Amino acid sequence: MSRKRQVLAPVGASAGLFLLSVLAVLCACASVLGVKLSNAPVLPWEQLIPLGVYVAGVPLALLWLKLIGWKGDAGLVGAVFLLCGMGLVVQFRMGSFSQGLSAPLALAPFPLGLAAFVVGVSLTGKGRGTWLAGAGWLAYLAALGVLAAMLVLGRSYRGGMYMPGNMNPSEIVKPLLVFFLAAYLSRRQKAFSETQNGMPVPPLLALLGLVLLWGVPMLLTIALKDLGLMVLLNAILIVMLFAIARSTGYLAIGLAAVTAAGFGVQFISSHAQARFDVWLNPFTDPTGKGWQILQALSAMYSGGLWGAGLGSGVPQAVPIVTSDFVYAAVAEEIGLIGCGLLLMVYAVLFSRGFRAAGAARTPFERLLCVGLTGSLAVQTILNVAGVTKALPMTGITLPLISHGGSSLITTLFVAGLIAGLSDRK
Amino acid sequence: MLERLMELLNGGQGPEFLRALKIIFLAFLSLAALAILFAPAVKPGKVNYWLLRVIVTGSLLAILLYQATWQLLGFSKPEFVRFMRRYNKRPNAAEMQVARGPILDRRGMVLAAPVAGDLWGRRYPLGEAAVHPLGYYHSKFGITAVERVCDPALSGFAPESREDLLGKGLFASRAEEGAAVTLTLDARLQQKAYELLDGRKGAVVIMRPRSGALLALVSSPGFDPLNPGPAILDEENSPAFNRVVQGRYPPGSTFKILIAGLALDRGLAPVYSCPGMGYIAGPSTPPIRDSEYYAWERKGEVWPGWGRLTLKEAMTHSSNVYFAQLGVACGPAAFNAIMVRARINEPLVYLKGASGELQSTRGNVPEISKKRTLAQLAIGQGEVLVTPLHVACFTAAAAAGGVMYRPRLVKDEPVEALAELFTPKTAEQLKAMLREVVVSGTGKAANVPELEVCGKTGTAQAPGGEDHAWFTCFAPRRHPNIVVTVLVEHGGYGAKSALPVARALIEEADLLGYVRRPEEGVK
Known about the structure:
heterodimer; A: mainly alpha; two-stranded antiparallel sheet; 17 helices; B: alpha+beta; Beta-lactamase; four-stranded mixed sheet
């Protein structure tokens, strides 16, 4: 291993991984094109633009990393771009780009996301991220601002709030609050590390401060009725508290609290209760409330072990399959084997993110890296678990694969930050 | 390259080509994933978050395993299989988009047809007239009625065997096409009946007495099967409510068919005196009166009553006073027994498919222990409620020698006798009485002499408005080939609103050759 590391510079290794990813993505693309062409014999050039940007743009991004002397984790970057490529193929297959150039907004997220990735790497690479600690309060206020703006301007859709054009700016709230927590907690490392018999006992004052500060965005998410965001933010808080204190007590308490809150919230919100009921027994109302999850599971069953082949399934039968339920489409068309491979790539991404966090130099960077990686990990777990009925649906998208402009751009920005943090020299 | 690709796809090699691509894709994906897994990592730092890595990786693995219980072993969950049989339109074939089979009427006329190129597309030539029996097939509102119960046949879907499981998707599978389902309905009668109801709330059943085959099953108002949303939300007219099989109404005087049959079977055909003031069955029961009493009262006169009536005369005049006495004379035990035989408290299955049934809502009649309660129930008032389908079924029993057949909606369902409601002799007598109703009684307006219509009017008190109007009839008397039952909600007097609909339908059915020609394949 050590010799290999010397032979292969991280950027070179990333490029190699990207090449392999491109082969897989092009195969997938050919399969989708094959089905589309057999239905209508016109090559959809315009719909292929995002994939073109992928093939041509990622090498440019890697070139930029080479120029700034990035020496981070190649596997992490490889995982990000493989997942991205799969996401683009799946969205192409689902017709998300079908309006071509007449709807440039649908084509723009990936190029913008790629730029955001590069910016992210540049911001945090080589220990540059430390200065960001000073912006913790700014990030906090910005997060509150976004939430408040959504409360005022947003409109309700499927139990959540969306801005005009169905943009969901709450995506940006996650990294902003991670920034804030990283900055806030890293300055109070001592206070939050105190334990007794393995249980954390932070001083009352520190705890009270955190509760008050954290309470404001929580109240706003409750007002927004964005259950998924609330669960996600609290999971991130727990992971970051664990990371700063390195006490399993926080994880234990957190898990208990999340379970209790999950059970409790159904008594407050009828929307949450409905999701809970559907999770427990989707067959009581199969054509109504249970329809979506049961169609998703039917899609998976029809995919079986090897999948129907990209482009050859019938995932359109699952409502909102391009965003929240995209994993059902993936499972139908690339099968359980393909799902296993994708989840493995996700696991590598998160595992390496946490490893990079452990190697970071300052507590702030460490916390930032844990928080950002954790936010992606929790999001992935909640989404996949929801679609497979392992947990109730939380209305969270699948990072890098789900349709959604703001989600893709933010996720790539976060991935860039993590990739930058993995390069500590 | 594009031409080559097109050639490959259109040259009959399409599926082979796509399967090869799938295998190559999975190979490259595994290669890329493994390379990512083993790519050089950064040097570990002093802090090791192994617990987080274990938790996240473990969670994803656990989810994948759970996913496998659905994706691979879904066939072992009966409820899930039932759901997929009914609602999953995915064919096993790799060629996707199997055309959903059509639904046809008894003569092969299209009632529902697929739309080429649109997975959820469906065309319903009868539109709202047949939406209740056919149901809808909608991406958002799901699948109902015949579309639902016959879905495995229509969609060509059936979960495969355990043996194919691991090879599914890798080896070629045969293409399937949805089968056609043929119903017993006649599109022309269905349409005509719906038109005759003319938007009024009501229901029509037209059936063959000796086989239970349903020629029309109409609930009005209907709604657009392509857009069921507004109908589901419309609480005022509730068009989504299937009145003919779900609506429960007091049967009113149509119930007298059952009571007369019961009495005749027991050898009872007494002569009762029927005074104008009515009949009081016991203390604290209200008097049962004939409708003429109230008609005269409105004119400011006192009705003298029918005097002494025989059973036949009482049926002809639909005398409540007579039937209340007759019911009491029959007694609770006999009454309870015929209610059980007529399955009033049970749902009637009108479609028995391989993967499900369609059934009507159960009726309601209490078990009687006191004679005096019978006075009310014998005239179809009080606590008794039935669906229009049920009224058609017991009318058919009178027409078919006393045997009640199970109503059927799909053509190849076997004919099934549910019960012998009356003896053949009683049935003959009932026919004679019901003929007399149309010749000289309350159903006079339905008399089409050459068709020998026999029938019974019904006017049932309804809460909150005018009475519900019934007319149930069959023809011809000598060898009944058709039963028509009509209900008009709050239609007032039965002979006024329900009867003309039934008469028009009998005439229409005669034009179509259903009345005078005996049913094919039935003795």
